[in-house]
Amino acid sequence: MTIAEWCVFGAVMLYLLSIAPVKWIRFRRFDNSKPRDPAFYEDPIAARALGAHQNGIEAFPFFAAAVLLAEFRLGPQRLIDELAVLFLIVRIAYVFTYLGNRPTLRSILWNIGFAINVAIFFMPVLRRFLPI
Hints:
This protein is mostly helical. The chain contains 6 helices and no strands. Helix 3 packs antiparallel against helix 4 (77-99), helix 3 runs parallel beside helix 5 and helix 4 runs antiparallel to helix 5 (103-121).
């Protein structure tokens, strides 16, 4: 497996781990028979963790598709790997800014992550212009 493919797995783990600690810490109040109970997410930290989790689910398909398409179309693997790692780092920072209630920085990081995805997606087209 390539580094980029491991980053796809890392992106899955990240969106799962963004909500798991809140559920674990507040496990006495979390009812697994009602995992979407709005009352559980009334706490601001729990609400932000849920938001980070949901955004991770939303960001994942484009990232996974971009990586797989770029590899399938024989984009430069080293650059795909580097961008995938960068995306994962940006997403980790995004989760922390979400939990830390930093909306402006969070939005900036989201846009950087999206731009990285676009770059990965178009890597096969750009490879003829890159000195690789």
